[in-house]
Amino acid sequence: MAGLRTVAAIALTLLVLALLGTGVTYLVAGAMTAMVSTFAIKEKQVRGQAITLALGLPVALAAMSLGALLSTRIIAGDALFIALIFAAVYSRRFGERGTALGLIGFQIYFVALFVGARPADLPVLWATLAIASVCSAIVRFAVVPETPQRVLKRLRDAFRARVAQVVTSQIELLDATPDHLEKALDDLRRRTARLHEAALMIQGRLEEGTRDAATAALLQRRVADAEIATERLGVLLLNARSAERADTLTLHLPDAPVPATGNLVTAADGDVIGTLRRDLNALRLLVARAGTDDRGTALAHVRNRLLGYRDEERLPRASDAVQDVFRGIGELARAVLGLRLALDGPQDESGDSPATTRSREEFDAEDVSLAGPEEPEGPEGPEGPEGPEGPEGKVRAALRRPTTRAAFQVSVGSVLAIVGGEFLSTQRWYWAVLTCWVVFLNTASTGEILVKGYRRLLGTVLGVVAGVVLAGLVGHHTWLAFTLVLVLIFAMFFTAPLSYALMSFFVTATLGLLYTLLNKYTLAVLVLRIEETALGAACGIIAAVLVLPVHTDRRTDELLGTVLDRLGDVVSAAVRQLSGGPASDLLSKARDLDTALDDLRDSTEPLTHPISPLRVRRRTVRYLVALLETCAYHARSLAATAELVPQSRTVTADPRLERAGRRIAHNIEVLAARVKDGKAEGEVESGASIASMLKTDASGAPPSDTVTARVLRHLQRLDEGVVGLARPVGVPVADRTERKTTRG
User: Sheet harboring 740-742: ordered strands across?
Assistant: First the structure.
């Protein structure tokens, strides 16, 4: 949608300027201004977008004027450019509006350099900027409107599509031969991760996209149910496919060995495999058409049949592992029904089976509990700078602030890029500055900057080749060139979340066409583009290493400590509520954990990138992140179950669970303390106490299909995952069962 909105704004700007008879130079300036005015604004509310867009026009006019007036004054122009870069980066501390205005100011100054603006051109350039801003507003608010409600609706549809894709991968996993099992498992991992991303994106839009807090809480609950049920079905299918019980870690660790294939399709279960395959296909159809009217249709009968698997007497005769898969199908069908009720409202119930009616009644009871009064959280004071009082303390606190540090780093890198760029070309030196600026965007450590610079250079080299080809094809056909520019810009936005190298490729190919339009295209110019890009990336890396550096290890340790704190919060609160303690907003805590884990995953990318020479370390980091993802899955499941206590008729508090979660909470605290302070003492405790509760508790083990048994299984997997974290973190493990201590 961002690509479509940007392309539409550029096209409308070009149309208006062409009707006014402006020259190619102003067409290029207008197109680039429309692009910046559209993609720079990220605010969620329409009113905020309008205010930022209105403020962006005077910022753009000022930047263009300064660029034109100082075009012949090299020293003053360079000094202003550095000051503008510092201000643009520092302004990110003021939120989305500050980020947008800083980006507009920098990019429009760059446009002035790119088109060679002169003072005599300013009246027409001012009119061009105004027209581009108006066209951007028309497209944003009328042609391709972006409101929180529309965005949330698209995300909801995308979430449904992701669930259907995961079910498709699960069917492929069921049918995969031993030779193709690894590929099927990789597809399932990838699509499960994308489902998780979609759930997180919905979480980020709930507050603005729903009419009230109760609706947001309900939708959050239903999305969490569907996500957990979908992932659980994958685990159950993997268990059914394996000769031994598969670990949840297998779904999160790319390097995990493929589990040994069991005897799923032999005589014991062969008669029901056809039924299982049919029901998985029916489940995929149910998910894909969840938003359609199914009154009196075969789809309603399919839903009734799948929900019937929640009753033990409706399960087909098969091994325990295969029966668990059918139970998982029933739970996911229930989650899909709940998601549909939350999104589309009440439905016709005339064709419901008893199982479907029971599911609806359960949802009604849960809705009542979710709509109950929330306990106000304790007051939180405003965040202030840490550290000692006084001028020196304030300076140190300011320098620790990410925006301040990045502003100094980018400024120093830009100075180096200007000096080096002038030696390469007195006309195109700003390409080095642009690259230095770009590699610092959305990065927080030296390693991230290194990887981003490498990708920028790779995409630029390939883009130069494409630019040569496209320039030869276009020749002097102006509107063909602009049409290709629109296509490439859309591709740039579409591929930006997928691959930074691909995005850089499309950016460079676009610039080749723009140079063609400005009659400045030569092969030497494109080669110079590569040289300036390499120089800018190098300057950015040098600045990141020498100026207030944030080493990747330090950054990942900080985020790992945050993840462990969030994990401990979720597990402790969930176990406390499952044991009969006070209620709390568990799903929000679980999403905070997911957000922290996503930040950690992004920060470890330099350590896991293929160019990293430290292969052992790369495997260790992947293993650590996969373990944390596994723990987060089980924590989400616990939180979703605990949310139903005490209002639900099917989930009741069990005081036995309190002592089952004590050791996990202690172990997480020990791990978090060691990550934050390498000298912290403490041992991670291991043993069989949690798993043995199913057999040794005086009240008897709960049946395997009960909620208590499922909670205990999640706790057991959490316990195993947390103990597994001890080795990469470097914490000793104490086996309380055998009364001996071993090193993790």
Answer: 684-686, 733-735, 740-742
**CA 717, CA 557: separation in Å to the nearest integer?**
24
pLDDT higher than threshold 80 for residue 309: yes
Contacts of 158 (CB under 8 A, 6+ apart): 198, 201
Q: Rounded to whole angstroms, how far apart are CA atoms 660 and 665? A: 10
Question: Around Cβ 348, how many Cβ atoms within 10 Å?
Answer: 11
The least confident of 1-10, 295-304, 367-376, 718-727 is: 367-376
The C-alpha R_g of the chain, in whole angstroms, comes to 29
Q: What is the pTM of this model?
A: 0.80
More confident residue, 261 or 525: 525
Average pLDDT for residues 463-467, to the nearest whole number?
84
The share of the chain scoring above pLDDT 70, in percent, equals 84
Q: What is the Cα 206 distance to its own chain's centre?
A: 15
Confidence (pLDDT) at 383:
41
DSSP per residue, 11-32: HHHHHHHHHTT--HHHHHHHHH
53 touches 129 (CB < 8 A):
no
Three-state secondary structure call for residue 261: strand
The span from the CA of 287 to the CA of 361, in Å, is 21
Calpha distance 562→136 (Å, rounded): 40
Q: How far apart are CA 679 and CA 446, in angstroms?
A: 25
Half-sphere exposure of 364 (CA within 13 A, CB side): 7
Residue 596: pLDDT above 50?
yes
Count CB neighbours of 17 within 10 A.
24
Contact (CB, 8 A) for 130 and 54:
no
Amino acid residing at 654: D
Alpha carbon distance 98, 235 (integer Å): 45
Total length of the chain: 744
Q: In angstroms, what CA-CA distances link 540 with 99, 391, 430, 456, 735? A: 20, 30, 14, 12, 49
CA distance to 578, 597, 631, 651, per residue, from 644 (Å): 9, 25, 21, 6
CB 722, CB 733: distance < 8 Å: no
Residues 6 or more apart whose Cβ sits within 8 Å of residue 97: 43, 48, 51, 52, 55
**Distances, alpha carbon 708 to alpha carbons 329, 575, 714, 741, in Å:** 20, 12, 10, 31
